[in-house]
Amino acid sequence: MSALSLQSKLPHVGTTIFSTMTQLALQHNAINLAQGFPDFGCPEELLELVTQAMHQGHNQYAPSTGLLALRQKISEKTQLMYGHLPHQDHEVTVTSGATEALFAAIAAVVQPGDEVLVVEPCYDSYVPAIELCGGVPVYASLTYPDFSIDWQQIEDKLTPKTRLLLLNSPHNPTGAVWQQQDLDALQRLAEKHSFLILSDEVYEHMVFDGKPHLSILSVPALAERAFVISSFGKTYHTTGWKVGYCIAPPALTAEFRKVHQYLTFSTATPFQHGLAGFLDNQKHYQQLPAFYQQKRDLFAQLLQPSKFELIPCAGTYFQLARYTAISDLPDVEFAQWLTKEAGVATIPISVFYHDQTDHRVVRFCFAKKEETLRAAAERLCRL
After folding, report:
1. Residues 277 and 288 in one domain
2. What is the residue range of the signal peptide feature (predicted)?
């Protein structure tokens, strides 16, 4: 039998850096500050609601668009947070995680040859999704070292072929967040050009120092042309449940749902029942910024004696750090060395650039128990 001829649709894609570093951490018994997940549990009340839903028999398919009760709660919460009331039937879709929502949004509107403007460094699922849909990624860069958006560069990259502008705030991996002038600049661009917007806002409840999250949904002229993605996994410390949602105007939602129904059809039913009940607990997500700011500040304090230079973190649960006072290794090699020799796993930032731009910076996740952060910092301060 002759060998099958197979041409990869993603020839440059291998195992993700998150899987690689987590596996390396396991091999060397390292503290894993690489992959972005909490090592503490979700609210007990939420667990009870999900368990109750299972015992009540809510274990069959949910509607493809999501449970009505959950979509209603999402709509109410969105109005409370951002002054925007999406229609529960025509503008809110529950998805199997934010990654699915991102893919569905891209697949819904990107035709072969369309350009998608991506701002780097960026989350690793964006570009493969664009390429699988036949789109052409066009790259702009956040300024270093503050990782702000250069809106003139964004405008210079726009062409008649630009179908979609993909944005992320609070920003993974840098921890940067939008300022009001960013929304104003984006609105001015939207008035001059006809692109759509895909806004990844999964860390919406992790903005620090008393500042609000500035959602695309808070600006009507932007919301009317945008997919906005959120994540219950990030908000409720349940990344393994893979439940997110997309808010978009009716015309975009209709196309989004055409793709969504053939990706996952629907999302786990008991999780949706539990989340619908727990969304009435506004206290949890309203207190989340202070909860994670305390962890950010503790981690920064613990690393103060170290040779790492911390880059200011305004949001998310990630802390960037320069290591040039410790090593001149490229960041991928340094991350591997740190895992093996110091016993702390991290993520190198160059992997978030298409051309592996290397600023000698790594990313630590501080969504961990206090004892985890203290143990990791102790090892890092020995360097």
Report:
1. no
2. none
Closest CA to 36 of 366, 344, 374: 366
86 within 8 A of 247, measured Cβ to Cβ: yes
Same domain, 269 and 296: no
Which pair of structure tokens corresponds to residue 67? 């449970």
The burial class, CB within 10 Å (0-12 / 13-18 / 19+), for 50 is buried
Residue 114: which of 106, 104, 122 has the closest Cα?
106
Q: How far is CA 369 from the centre of its chain?
A: 21
Tell me, yes or no, whether 344 and 267 share the same domain: no
φ, ψ for residue 199, nearest 5 deg: -110, 115
Cα torsion through 167, 124, 252, 141, rounded to 10: 30
- For 221-248, the pLDDT digits (tens) are 999 999 999 999 999 999 999 999 999 9
- By residue range, what is the domain housing residue 240? 44-281
E strands in the chain? 31-32, 92-95, 115-120, 136-141, 162-168, 196-200, 226-231, 244-247, 309-311, 318-322, 344-345, 347-348, 361-365
Q: Tell me how far the alpha carbon of residue 126 is from its chain's centroid.
A: 10
- In this predicted model, what pLDDT tens digit does every residue of 327-337 receive, in sequence order? 999 999 999 99
Question: Are the C-beta atoms of residues 118 and 139 closer than 8 Å to each other?
Answer: yes
Statement to judge: residues 89 and 228 lie in one domain: yes
Structural domain includes residue 12: no
Answer whether residue 248 is part of any domain.
yes
Q: Can you give the pTM of this predicted structure?
A: 0.96
d(CA 251, CA 237): 32
